[in-house]
Amino acid sequence: MKLYKLAQEYFIAFSKKNIEKLESLLSRNVVLRDWSVRIKGKRKVVNFNKKLFAEYPKINLKFLNYCLNIKKKIITCELEIYLNKKISIKVVDIIFFDTNYKIKKIYAFKG
Description:
alpha+beta
C-alpha cells in the first residue's frame, strides 16, 4: 500500500498546489509526458506545474480509481481534473516509482 499512499500524497499536493511537497516526491530525472508535453528533469517538471497552477488557479482533482503493480512499482490512477468550475477532464495517470519510491515517470492520458 506504500505506492497507493505515495500516489495520494502526490495528488493531494497537486490539488493544494504545494510545490515543495510535489518536488519532494519526484526523482531527479523524472519524466512527465501527457497529451501536450514531454518534460525531463525535476526542475522542469516543477516549473511546468507552477505555470499550470498560475494558468488555472482553481485547478483541483478527484481520485476515482486505481490499479497497483507492486512488483514493478507502478500505479495507474483514474482522475477527474477540474480546471475551473465549468471545465473538467478525465485523465488516466500511470506513475512509475524508482527503488527509493520517488516518482520517476508520470504518463498522463486524456480520456
